[in-house]
């Protein structure tokens, strides 16, 4: 069993699913329409009330999770928590409430997971498709073929802000709808060419907004339920004739969702117009299903992050012979340091593979450039937190340690930094060694034992190790080197 928790801008949602052959069956789901995006104040901070509402919801979700024998749980946060200036005030308390770490994912990663959920729910191998997802805070557009993503983009437009901006106090007018649609079109028009119909066969709508609009059209006699411009405009006309969100009577849509549907309708009309979509098919699959498929693939050793690391290394022309030497050496050294958990093990290995990508910019400050590139790149499969961790490790590989010493309160992180710095040092010194030639410990101080003949053969090792001793001393850590016969 897997569980996916989606901290969306409009609703928090939970899916518990079980892998069964070629499908993941949802055995339990929950939704809480807390409208987190509406809790952002004028300064871009979440209000105390919004934070408390989120924490209360996650505490309830924890009770549901505890009732099932779940193998793996992932909690992902999307647009509102991405952009909230005080997200740091929410995350620790939210993690404590639900009992699991929260991954703040990028818009591109959100799009990747949405597409993964859709592609695994459609038994049409190799189909060229367009997937749209209108959320509370952002809209994702993904072009793909079968399980492969060709292009993914995330746009900062969602139902919560669009509804509040163009339909304040719930007033619905023709002029307001015209303005809302034009605003959406202006955001999508520059990105539209790659998403025109010649590039795909079928277009799918994966969000709850799409399904709600389809239900509103069908159950209120405004069309056959298909999402076409004709049917969308019929729904728009009904909304305008009613004139007020509170007076709308839309069978199949819960009252608290109606206001969001109006904003989503304007965005959806803009999308169909700019991308020239004739028919959009709503589908019961998306982010949460994608998160569960991603967990399943990781459990079967098919981790998308591995591919991302090698793509980044290739893109920036990293010397893979050097990268692999450092990666293998760092793995051996880190094991000797006996970390308390495997929190950094894989990220340390990946950081070693990418440690020289900054060379494409500069041979002297490559560690700084590489760190910036990794923190800000769109790396499929990785969360913002994971990329920040790898960025810090890559930054730490050379130079003074004060820039990352605040992370040393976590001893495992300090051990990861030590292992990477020594692996890079030994690689630069061109030391060919059996890992049994080196003994490394880190407790109250760092102790390194290395064969004397290796130091004689590679005199620069002595120079670099002296530099390391000085660097660690500057952050208050004693470093002792012993040469053995």
From TrEMBL:
<protein>
    <submittedName>
        <fullName>Ppx/GppA family phosphatase</fullName>
    </submittedName>
</protein>
<dbReference type="InterPro" id="IPR030673">
    <property type="entry name" value="PyroPPase_GppA_Ppx"/>
</dbReference>
<dbReference type="InterPro" id="IPR043129">
    <property type="entry name" value="ATPase_NBD"/>
</dbReference>
<dbReference type="InterPro" id="IPR003695">
    <property type="entry name" value="Ppx_GppA_N"/>
</dbReference>
<dbReference type="GO" id="GO:0016462">
    <property type="term" value="F:pyrophosphatase activity"/>
</dbReference>
<dbReference type="Pfam" id="PF21447">
    <property type="entry name" value="Ppx-GppA_III"/>
</dbReference>
<feature type="domain" description="Ppx/GppA phosphatase C-terminal">
    <location>
        <begin position="305"/>
        <end position="456"/>
    </location>
</feature>
<dbReference type="Pfam" id="PF02541">
    <property type="entry name" value="Ppx-GppA"/>
</dbReference>
<dbReference type="InterPro" id="IPR050273">
    <property type="entry name" value="GppA/Ppx_hydrolase"/>
</dbReference>
<feature type="domain" description="Ppx/GppA phosphatase N-terminal">
    <location>
        <begin position="18"/>
        <end position="297"/>
    </location>
</feature>
<dbReference type="InterPro" id="IPR048950">
    <property type="entry name" value="Ppx_GppA_C"/>
</dbReference>
<keyword id="KW-0378">Hydrolase</keyword>
């Amino acid at each position: 069993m897997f569980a996916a928790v989606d901290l969306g801008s409009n609703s928090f949602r939970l899916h518990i699913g079980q892998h069964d052959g070629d499908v993941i069956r949802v055995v339990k789901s929950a939704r809480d329409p807390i409208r987190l995006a509406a809790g952002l104040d004028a300064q871009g901070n979440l209000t105390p009330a919004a934070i408390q509402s989120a924490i209360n919801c996650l505490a309830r979700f924890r009770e549901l999770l505890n009732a099932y024998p779940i193998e793996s749980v992932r909690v992902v946060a999307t647009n509102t928590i991405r952009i909230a200036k005080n997200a740091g005030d929410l995350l620790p308390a939210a993690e404590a409430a639900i009992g699991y770490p929260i991954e703040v994912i990028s818009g591109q990663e959100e799009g990747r997971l949405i597409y993964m959920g859709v592609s695994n729910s459609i038994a049409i191998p190799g189909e060229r498709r367009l997937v749209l997802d209108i959320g509370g805070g952002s809209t994702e557009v993904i072009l793909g073929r079968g399980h492969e993503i060709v292009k993914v983009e995330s746009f900062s437009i969602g139902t919560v802000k669009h509804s509040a901006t163009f339909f304040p106090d719930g007033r619905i007018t023709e002029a307001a709808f015209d303005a809302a649609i034009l605003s959406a079109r202006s955001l999508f028009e520059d990105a539209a060419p790659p998403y025109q119909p010649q590039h795909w066969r079928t277009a799918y709508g994966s969000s709850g907004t799409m399904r709600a609009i389809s239900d509103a059209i069908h159950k209120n006699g405004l069309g056959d339920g298909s999402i076409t411009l004709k049917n969308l405009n019929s729904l728009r006309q009904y909304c305008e004739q009613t004139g007020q969100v509170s007076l709308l009577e839309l069978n199949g849509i819960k009252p608290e969702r109606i206001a969001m549907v109006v904003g989503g309708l304007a965005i959806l009309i803009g999308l169909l117009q700019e991308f020239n979509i004739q028919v959009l098919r709503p589908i019961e699959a998306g982010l949460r299903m994608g998160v569960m498929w991603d967990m399943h693939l990781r459990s079967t050793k098919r981790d998308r992050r591995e591919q991302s690391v090698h793509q980044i290394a290739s893109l920036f022309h990293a010397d893979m012979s050097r990268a692999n030497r450092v990666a293998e050496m760092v793995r051996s050294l880190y094991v000797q340091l006996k970390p308390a958990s495997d929190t950094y093990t894989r990220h340390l290995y990946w950081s070693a593979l990418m440690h020289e990508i900054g060379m494409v910019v500069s041979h002297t400050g490559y560690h700084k450039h590489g760190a910036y590139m990794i923190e800000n790149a769109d790396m499929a499969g990785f969360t913002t937190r994971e990329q920040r961790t790898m960025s810090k490790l890559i930054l730490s590989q050379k130079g003074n340690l004060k820039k990352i010493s605040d992370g040393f309160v976590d001893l495992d992180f300090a051990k990861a930094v030590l292992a990477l710095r020594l692996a890079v040092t030994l690689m630069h010194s061109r030391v060919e060694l059996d890992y049994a030639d080196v003994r490394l410990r880190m407790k109250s101080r760092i102790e390194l034992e290395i064969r004397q003949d290796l130091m004689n053969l590679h005199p620069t090792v002595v120079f670099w190790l002296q530099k390391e001793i000085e660097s660690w001393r500057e952050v208050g850590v004693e470093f002792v080197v012993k040469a053995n016969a």
